[in-house]
Amino acid sequence: MEVLMTKNVVFFTTICLGIVSISFAAELDTARIDQLTGLKGKMNEKERAYKVTFPRDDVKVVVDSWTMPPFMGLGTWAAFTPTKDGAMVMGDTVLFEDEVNAAMSAALDNGLNVTALHSHFFFDHPKVYFMHIEGEGEVDKLAGAVRKVYDAAKQIRAANPQPKDSFGAARLPEKNSITAAPLNDIFGAQGELKDGMVKFTFGRPATMHGVKIDNTMGVNTWAAFAGSDDDAVVDGDFAVTEDELQPTARSLLKERINIVAIHQHMTHEQPRMMFFHYWGRGRAKDLAQAIKGAFLVAGLQEVASPIHN
Q1: Which of 29, 101, 131, 193 falls 20 to 30 Å from 258 in CA-CA distance?
Q2: Dihedral (CA of 258, 261, 265, 267) sign
Q3: 180-297 architecture in CATH?
Q4: DSSP assigned state of 177
Q5: Which helix (DSSP H) or strand (DSSP E) does residue 44 occupy?
Q6: Domain ranges within the chain, ordered by starting residue
Q7: In the beta sheet, which residues pair with residue 42?
């Protein structure tokens, strides 16, 4: 009798799992995900997640003099799970430096969020970056957006099979000669001056482990300018909340400012702060206006006065 009951339980469980699997596939429309992404995915019934992936094997990557097989960590993937409003997607995209901003723009322009941008290796040639994405909504829109991210990178590689090792601009003047006054006017603050360069630093109050932290403790947004007034570079870092990250990054990308890293600098801080680093080239005033525009998008009009680092 016990053996019969056990067999019945196993049979019943198998039937239920089969029903869940069929229901899940229908709910998520995995065939449609395959069609839109151009990839063949695999379903994890236990986790109710459907994952598409492909190895980044179109460019040889050497890490510390060793040619790295894609299996060792060069796989791009996107995973989908059903929600009450459609689905959620999360993923990690393997990119080379000259692909990052095109792929990031494709993600943001098509409703995805970019949640991190970083490297995984030391001494890798060409340099490899990993861009994490997430989004929620209709499956068709999410899968279509993922495909556009992948296509953006493919278009870069189709034009240049080997990743570039520079932005391709001419060298900056040997002597820096940035005029501070116009930039001071744009930012409404006095920048720090050194050897023809100008730097602005704005703090954001926060707490960490119950202790107040601010500009000097590293919670700040900054922008540094070098070169000449007509041919300058700007680099810096934005300290933003999670809600501010996407619109601020989108604002800079539309002004052709490159995002080069997205990550955290702290743990247990309140509010939670994200940091993203950027690099741009152009007229100093144009670059400053682009950075100030991102301030306004992020709601940073009331930034604290600059301090010297």
Answers
A1: 193
A2: positive
A3: 2-Layer Sandwich (3.30)
A4: B
A5: strand 42-44
A6: 2-159, 180-297
A7: 51
Q: Residues with Cβ < 8 Å from 191, sequence gap 6 or more?
A: 180, 183, 184, 198, 199, 200, 306
User: In this structure, what token pair is assigned to residue 60?
Assistant: 């040889």
239-266 burial, b at 16+ Cβ within 10 Å, e below that, comes to: bbeeebbbebbbbbbeeebbbbbbeeeb
Q: Which two tokens stand for residue 136?
A: 């929620």
- Tokens 């060298």 — which residue? 171
- CB-based contacts of 131: which residues, under 8 Å, 6+ apart? 92, 93, 95, 100, 103, 104, 107, 114, 116, 117
pLDDT per residue of the chain (309 residues) written in tens, 0 to 9:
554 444 554 444 444 444 444 444 448 999 999 999 999 999 999 999 999 999 999 999 999 999 999 999 999 999 999 999 999 999 999 999 999 999 999 999 999 999 999 999 999 999 999 999 999 999 999 999 999 999 999 999 999 999 999 988 889 988 999 999 999 999 999 999 999 999 999 999 999 999 999 999 999 999 999 999 999 999 999 999 999 999 999 999 999 999 999 999 999 999 999 999 999 999 999 999 999 999 998 776 555 344 444
Q: Which of 231, 240, 280 is nearest to 259 (CA)?
A: 280
Cα separation, 137 vs 153, whole angstroms: 23
Give the right CATH number for 2-159 from 3.30.1460, 2.120.10, 1.10.3470, 3.30.70: 3.30.1460
